[in-house]
Amino acid sequence: MNRPKIAITMGDPNGIGPELAIKSIERKAEELGFRPVLIGDEKVFADTIELLNSDLTLTKVKDLSASPPSGSTIELVVPEDLDVPEIEWGTIDPAMGEASFSCIRKAMDLAGRGEFDGVVNGPINKESYKLAGYDYLTELAYMGHLESEDVEPYIIGAMEPFFTVFVTGHIALREVPDALSTERVLLHIRRLNEVLKNLGLENPEIAVAGLNPHLGEGGQIGDEESKIIEPAVDLAEEEEINVAGLFPADSIFATALRRDFDGVVCMYHDQANIARKILAWKKGSSLYGGLSVPGGTTAHGTAFEIAGQGIADSDSMEDTLSYVTKLISD
Known about the structure:
There is one protein chain. The radius of gyration is 20 Å and the shape is globular. The chain has eleven helices and twelve strands. It has two domains: 5-153 and 291-329, Isopropylmalate Dehydrogenase, CATH 3.40.718.10; 161-277, 3-Layer(aba) Sandwich (Isopropylmalate Dehydrogenase). It is of the alpha/beta class.
């Protein structure tokens, strides 16, 4: 009864989300000690269980205050407005984008009422949900909107060697310098430090990357380092955060591996994610920060090319559930 309840949404039904959910529950729910609750379509999950020859069974529920089912029975919440057409594996479909966001809405609504301790999403297809009429850069932006217009959620890239955070998100590269400020860099140093501490690191070591080649060559090819980023590092040191830098972006990840840094603060999206895609391929996690409950999703997408074959690797989803469980228990 005291196990944390984690909502696991199905993601885009034409992708591998339902498969990852079933595999991860089978392999990790008991070990990690959380109570999984699926959010999605009954037929989609039933067909996935059959595809995988899984021993799990489903029970539709509306009241999550009751005792959890025993054995291999998994609770399923079906959103009232959910409408899933016939599955066409690997295809972009606005109806499936709508279905994936319906599940997120339900999970966030129940989390807001205290029914869930965490929310983990199956992979979402951006093109599908945008065709459905949702003008959000990411599903996390939508989740923040569901909570409050004032919420600014953020992503922590979780992987085995070190964690990452990017100061600027899904914007054009030409816009990055203007989007940087000392306050935003300091904020993301604080955010990464807090998450690492919540995951059990007493005094995490954090490296900070520069923006320009060779840290701007003393201002010859950019002065963001001296005017914006270095002052943020100085302020973080004054707050007794264990921070180091600046390090050139082209060598910071090699330095982080060599010096065993726990986290790296990056200035823009791909600066952080290139390392993640190399070092944590098929593993790792994208953790959600800034929401009322811990959450996350896989470090990869819907993998349309292998959907429906039962061969998807669930390591990243399992990692996500593991990190979210740790954050809940903090």
